[in-house]
UniProtKB/TrEMBL annotation:
Keyword Membrane assigned: no
Family, per entry: Belongs to the peptidase S33 family.
Domain of life, per lineage: Bacteria
Species of origin: Jatrophihabitans lederbergiae
Domain (AB hydrolase-1): residue spans on this chain: 36-272
Keyword field: Hydrolase
Name of the protein in its database record: Alpha/beta hydrolase
PANTHER family: AB HYDROLASE SUPERFAMILY PROTEIN YCLE, MONOACYLGLYCEROL LIPASE
GO MF annotation, one: hydrolase activity
Amino acid sequence: MAWPVVGEPVWWEFAIRGVMLRGTVQRRAGMSASGAVVAVHGGPGVDGAGLRHVLAPLAEDAELVVPDQRGHGRSDLATAASWRLDDWADDLAGVIGALQLHRPVVVGVSFGGWVALRYAARHPGQLGGLVIAASTARLLSVEEGAERMGSLGGPASAAARRAAYAEPDLEASPAFERHVLSLMAVREPGPALRAVRAAQVKTPQVNAHFTPQFSRLDLTDDARQVRCPATVVVGELDPLTTPQLAAATADACPGRARLRLVPHAAHDLLTDAPDILLEEIHWALAARD
């Protein structure tokens, strides 16, 4: 494979578990890599373009690999029966094996954090480090989620969250965008990230299929099976989780994970705290076993 300069990712494709998966690998030409970082995008229902853009500086001295998960982006859509954490986790193991990566640091952002936790539990001998960002092992219940929204955005945010739990189609309503989605970031994304997101490939059917499981997910047992250095990075103003759940996730990891609570940041760490996310990934690269 001919390595590009930073900013020019090379696309790959592999048939993994009966599905064609596609993604990118990126490293500065002529540089020896200090390790590999595999970044798992959020969603569900959007591709890995945002991670490729924000995490590109890692390719200065590491291999940066960003797959589009099955059902996302340039990878095969597959079927709804396989839009499951187990499938996404096993796909990730297949990609890492196909690329012959040696004990990479796996970074899961938002929904990708759950995939990364499930992967770490199912394939503990393959990775050398784990970063869970804007994600926790357990999510808030329906009522806890509404209360969390209310604490950050007021009664209108709590009401919009409750209404959308009862009727998911309301997530497309102006009230949901104004009172709930507005809480996902404290800052506005820069023009470049905004342009990248505008061009993302979206598969809303995957989101509609999986999001009803959110309030029932509990990956605490998966966290207890992590066997490598781990980091949990969560914005203190994240409307989808809490600092307490972040601490519980870190505590569940054997030996306890490194915990980074980011002040003045919400759920969208790619917008609110990209430098801190990069800092924690660099720490994970140095600490990987």
